[in-house]
Structure formats: C-alpha cells, structure tokens
Amino acid sequence: MRGLEIRELECFLVLSEELHFGRTGERLYISQSRVSQLLRALERRVGTRLVARTSRHVRLTAAGEEFLASLRPAYDALVSAVEQARAAAHGTARRIRIGFQGAIYEEITRAITAFQARHPECRVDIAEIPLSDPFGALRRETVDAAVVLLPVEEPDLHLGPVFSEQQQRLAVSVRHPFAQRARLDAEDLARVCLIPLTGPAPEYWKRVHSPQVTPKGRPIPQEGGVQTLQEGLTLIAAGRGAMLLCGSTAEYNRRRDIAFVPVGGLPMSALGLIWPRSGESAHLKAFAAEISDSIS
C-alpha cells in the first residue's frame, strides 16, 4: 500500500496492548490527540474501524482483532530484520543485557536456554544490579531489561511477565530467637532490628522491602543500611540485624549461619521482568515470551 506510515502501525500495536489512549501516548511520547490522529489515518487506509472507543472502555473491533493477528508477526519480523542488518553493519552480534537482583532464577535460566536456541543471532548477557537500586541500571542503559522485585510503578518502565510469587522471609542469624520459629507474624517485626536498603529505590518500593512500621503501625527498629544483598547477608550472619527477602532469594542464598523464616501478614513477594517503554525490541519481546512459557 503506497504511503503506508510505520508510525500508524506502531500506534495501533501499542494501543492494542494498552487499550488506553493516554498510556499509548505516554509510551510513544506523543499526545493523546496525536494517537487519535494516527489511528484515524490507519483506519482510513484499511477502510474499516479497528478500535471501538467509549467514555469508559477501549476495545478492538472484530476487524481490529483480525488485523492485529496479521500485523504483529509481520511487524516483529520487520523490526528483527532491521536489528540484524544493523548488527551485521557493525560487525557484531545482537545482544540483550539482562539485569538481576541477587540471583539468576530457574525461570530465567530456562528462558535464556530456550531463547538462544530459537535466536542464535542474539546473545543474552547477564549482570547483577544492586538490591537497593532496581531501576537505575535501566535508566543508565547499562542493561536492556531487568528481573526485579515488585512493586513497579514507574511510568517509563513496562512490566512484563510476573513470576515466583511467594511469602516473604525474614533472614536472621541462627543465633537469633526467631531462627527457631516455624513462622512469624508481621507484628513480630517490631521485635527485630531491620537492616534498611539505602540506595535510590523509590519510597513505595522501600516500604515493601524495608518497612518502618508493622501493618498495625508499630515502629520497626532499623539500623545501618546496605545496598547489595551480599552486604546484608554478611551483617545478618554477624548478628547485626535482619532483612526481609523474597522466597526465591532465600532459597538461592541458603547458608548455615542464617535462618530464613516465613512471615505472614505482609504482601506476597514477586519478581517481574521490566524494560523501558522506549526500548522495546522484537528480541526483547521474544525473550519475555520465553519467560512466560517457562512459568506456565
């Protein structure tokens, strides 16, 4: 079709995911009115309505669903072709850099293995990111995506697959009285000194992983501070305090001098794959799909 605009197709694809004109504009860094303009232009080209919009809901029409099913693989193939050509022009293989907090989890290793088998032209590199700074490496562009502890409320970051939802664990020295308990309640945290995370993580994130009060409002003592998991584990083993960790991190960091005790009454911990909304690529989406497959 002569005069076809890639931007119109990109707008439709993002809108089909968000089903919200405002969020679509945020992801594409354009105004909501521009989203409407691009959609109308595309609908004129195909000769039918692709999106039905009311004051409360946005949904794809039957024609829109059919168009999406045809467009998505074709668009991803086009993006992949451009990325491979760019890599060839620079004489380097395409790479995806994945950051992780604390440990490489089983779901991720399975996804990496499956992705490399299906996409030998793209290499997956891994890098550890500080426990106390889940989003900084993405914004500094030292990684392309990251597996981080939830919650994630950053408007510039896209949350992909969520996995490993488990009860939080309190990591304490085996010499601490709590080490002999089979389970703790959130109110018990008022009786232990937590080691806070002191990095640039947003406050809403710290409130989950380094709370200052119990659910009933009792203050939780805090002392010192760490930025990495290994710093925290060293202090815990020395009897200098305790930390809340997700279940997966506890499993991957078992050691004889630390006990990991489940804590009830707190939000469940979970991990998610995130990446910048402006940095989506066909390879990154394919990697996210592999993670989804590995946890299904």
UniProtKB/TrEMBL annotation:
Name of the featured protein: Transcriptional regulator, LysR family
Annotated organism of origin: Marinactinospora thermotolerans DSM 45154
Family note: Belongs to the LysR transcriptional regulatory family.
Cellular component terms (Gene Ontology): protein-DNA complex
Record's keyword annotation contains Transcription: yes
Record's keyword terms, sorted: DNA-binding, Transcription, Transcription regulation
Domain HTH lysR-type as annotated: residue spans: 4-61
Top-level taxon of the source organism: Bacteria
CDD domains in UniProt: PBP2_LTTR_aromatics_like
Keyword Nucleotide-binding: no
